[in-house]
């Protein structure tokens, strides 16, 4: 029991460490990714527009490894701020696009909860990209 708990905790720490490394490689994206919740077998991340960045529209793509499954993805940008499109149909990817009336500084865009399928096998890093960026 203790061995399984320790291995689960190690897997979560490895995933979070990999996530931080992968996100750090994407410098200049204007996004902040925050750990909102974590357990032995799942992780919840929030994706925000960085406070110093002003974006009116863009598309964000979050890719996750096969060792994880998508439990939930929810748009958090208020409806009155503009229009959003959250797509989760492609395995291993979450795509979020938005167009807003005003620039979004520090706004939470979406939340993603990922389940770790095999806690004995560390997951590969998560990557996040901003392939299309609008101007404010």
Structure description:
This protein is 18% helix and 49% strand. With 136 residues, the chain is α+β, with helices and mostly antiparallel strands. A hairpin with a 3-residue loop joins strand 1 and strand 2. The radius of gyration is 15 Å and the shape is elongated. The protein starts with a helix and ends with a strand. About 9% of the residues have low confidence.
Amino-to-carboxy terminus distance: 53 Å
Give the amount of beta strand, in percent.
over 45%
- Please give the share of residues in helix: 10-25%
Oligomer: single chain
The strand count comes to: 8
Shape: elongated
Low-confidence stretches: 16-27
Mean pLDDT: 76
User: Which structural class do you get from the secondary structure elements?
Assistant: alpha+beta
Largest sheet: 4 strands, antiparallel
